[in-house]
Amino acid sequence: MIRDNPVQYVGVDRIDEPLIYLSGVRDVGYDETVQVADQQGSYRPGTVLEVGRNRAVVQVLGGTTGLSTSQTRVRFEGAPFSVRVTEDMLGRAFDGLGRPIDGGPSPIGGEERAVSGVPINPAARAYPTDFIHTGVSIIDGSNSLIRGQKLPIFSGNGLPHQQLTAQIVRQATIAEAESFAVVLAGMGIKNDEADYFRHSFEDAGALGKVALFLSPADAPSVERILTPQVALTLAEYLAFERDMHVLVLLTDMTNYCDALREISSARDEIPARKGYPGHLYSDLAAIYERAGRIKGAEGSITQIPILTMPSDDISHPVPDLTGYITEGQIVSERGLFLKGIYPPIDALGSLSRLMKDGVGKGFTRDDHIAVSNQLYAAYSRVEDVRGLASVIGEDELSPADRQFLEFGDAFERQYLAQGENENRTIEQTLDTAWKVISILPRSELVRLNDQMLDQHYSRQEQD
After folding, report:
1. Taking 70 as the threshold, does the pLDDT of residue 458 lie above it?
2. What is the CATH number assigned to the segment(s) 83-357?
């Protein structure tokens, strides 16, 4: 409960963007909401970052510009930072703190919820098993997305991860039932990227099922930290109280982590790898683990975090730690992008650890897992053959190796590549997979049983 008489202090010890330091405080709690007033009486929100020994550190969400140590007033509200959530937020756009920016009604109605959320009891979690159709072959066919899963996209600067994100939203919204919704959190997002998302969803008729939380690149770094928490608070309400299946997209998690590093540096914390705080893993886990399903609940939260890898380095702390927490990753490859292939997904570096439980008989098609395994095995051989060809030349390759080179080109140009507006059914995806697999001799297809080969390989061969 918010205090009937909020505690207010006048004057602070030190101001260090975006933090203010106070002493002599009492009865103040961690993560408590704060209102900070400047000399003109204008308030800006904040949260308590640290308390102890009658001291408190407050992070100011509106920045500390214009504040003075002697005149600043700090009011402690006695409750954590919260937002109002309602189904009516779908189809609307908000800033990183949940305030409307689309010209619609403000303030909004609904129920007030703390953005920190409530951890899901591990014993209450239901195992994810339901396939989500994205219409993208390399995801649906080889790295399937399952309801309740966390499946990040590892990309790089200049690669089309925003286009891929928008395509997944458009096509999943069309394929899923009426109880499907999308929550997108943009951290450090540019204005042209925000406009792209809005127009893309609006043109596809999907905007009514999407809630946008956009923290622009010029917003305070503290806002970027709260943006995914605000977005997930709405997602939890829709999933577990309105029985909706919610897809949450978080872009760009690298900007979120950079904001953590900035605040950690201001607090003089001892840095870990590349200057990031030692608690980066737990901060990321607190975001990612809010995805999942609960036993007895109809709804679900599925997460697709998007992050850019500096210098395409997958060992960078952000993708490295993300990979430990999540159930797989979709990795973009710059070499494919330079070939003009969209989406430029690294088929060998990507995986979905929950795919085996959500595809195949009863979900997609009986041959799904076997075909996916055969594609992976054959494409692995392609990489070896290409390396050999670069040394001895293609003319010196064996006939079988030349067939694998032909398969590799077909895999990239026919199965992997597709247009930004091309929405493939799972049948089309698997049929395309059989088409490219049939380039290889039947004797090389050791991951497929005779029944599958008789049904699909012979037909493709006749075609």
Report:
1. no
2. 3.40.50.12240
